[in-house]
Write a structure and sequence with these properties.
Blueprint lengths: L3 H21 L19 H10 L7 H20 L1 H34 L6 H6 L11 H15 L10 H21 L15 H20 L3 H24 L5 H4 L9 H28 L5 H28 L6 H33 L1
């Protein structure tokens, strides 16, 4: 079952993620592999402004992807049956992850290293980076594969209405388990396979919340829940820059460490903010799409069809464009948006071509 609002939101989120990765490649705080070799970085003041305007979305957008995946997973299991569902997920999610981790990602990281003048071999790029078996942005599909297969073998979940009490309870559980998880796996730490274990409470919590809410939630987030979620997100994002200024944490690269994990009030505060933003933000974004992003037509359908492929290919595209821009004597404030816009266009163009050919092949067979 396809819903135009959710499809359109998926397109926006994929484009946003690609653009965000382009910015992180030129940020002092890092967060995207090009920051290991970047030739220029943002002015600290510009980076602070970008963090205030765009940074909060990084705390919950991936959780929103898992939320939307969870909404449709139980129905897919019922329609296909457990065996066919698992086989389908192994092909759709598992194969891209393996190909990226073993071939594609180390190859393009190696290209970026060589473009920066580093004398490293492909084998070094594959074996000596932390974490081992890094798959770039496709860590998302590897973790989603684990969650999906686990849900397929779990007892069936009963769909029910998501209320304000449910949202609040999920927020507290996500925040609490995030804090506890980061005692062992600090934020931005690496594990074999780049599993992002420090983000699992958010991702799994939203995946399960989507599975419980089901298609009823995908069709309409209740008005009162939508308004409350919107207000929570706006208030939280408005308070964050003020709180950062009062705490003297405006230099992100220098002040981030206490927030990443451990028995620190900063880590607890960040976990709470993440919990609030991911639950309220996911509900608000889905509700907003249902009310504002309902457009249909061949172009919108083509973009929606292309979104998954665009997400899969974004890493190589971003690294290639950043490496190609390297010789130009331009500031990061120019290079980052050019790379981001170019990567969004190229990634979706590749997705359009791939999915159009697949559709034509299916119709002819």
């Amino acid at each position: 079952m396809r819903l135009s609002a959710v499809d359109n939101l998926k397109v926006v989120l994929v484009a946003w993620v690609i653009g965000g990765h382009a910015l992180l490649g030129y940020a002092a705080i890092g967060g995207w592999p090009y920051d290991e070799v970047n030739e220029v970085t943002f002015h600290p003041g510009v980076e602070t402004v970008l963090a205030a305007l765009i940074g909060p979305s990084g705390l919950f957008f991936m959780g929103t992807f898992y939320f939307m995946a969870g909404i449709f997973t139980p129905g897919s299991i019922v329609r296909k049956g457990r065996q066919r569902f698992v086989a389908d997920r192994l092909v759709r999610l598992g194969v891209p992850w393996v190909v990226s981790a073993v071939v594609v990602w180390p190859t393009f990281v190696w290209i970026a290293y060589r473009g920066a003048g580093r004398n490293v071999s492909w084998w070094q790029a594959f074996t000596q980076r932390d974490p081992l078996l890094d798959s770039g942005s496709l860590w998302f599909v590897g973790v989603l594969l684990i969650f999906s297969v686990a849900l397929a073998f779990a007892p069936p979940m009963k769909e029910r209405a998501i209320t304000g009490r449910t949202a609040f309870g999920t927020t507290m559980v996500v925040a609490g388990t995030t804090f506890l998880t980061r005692l062992v796996f600090p934020a931005r730490s690496g594990q074999i396979g780049d599993l992002h274990l420090w983000w699992w409470p958010q991702c799994l919590g939203m995946f399960l919340l989507g599975a419980v809410g089901g298609l009823r939630l995908a069709q309409r987030v209740p008005d009162d829940l939508y308004r409350t979620s919107r207000n929570v997100v706006i208030a939280t994002i408005a308070v964050l820059p003020v709180a950062a200024a009062l705490l003297g944490a405006l230099d992100l690269a220098a002040n981030a460490e206490p927030f990443l994990g451990g028995w620190r009030w900063q880590a607890a505060a960040l976990a709470l903010v993440e919990g609030m933003l991911v639950v309220a933000g996911s509900l608000w974004l889905v509700g907003l799409a249902q009310r504002r992003l309902t457009g249909q037509g061949p172009f919108a359908e083509g973009l929606a069809r292309s979104a998954y492929v665009a997400f899969v290919v974004q890493g190589p595209v971003l690294l290639s464009l950043a490496t190609a821009m390297r010789p130009f004597d331009l500031p990061a404030e120019v290079k980052a948006p050019v790379v981001g816009a170019g990567a969004v266009a190229v990634s979706f163009a590749i997705g359009w071509v791939v999915t159009s050919r697949r559709g034509a092949s299916a119709r002819s067979s």
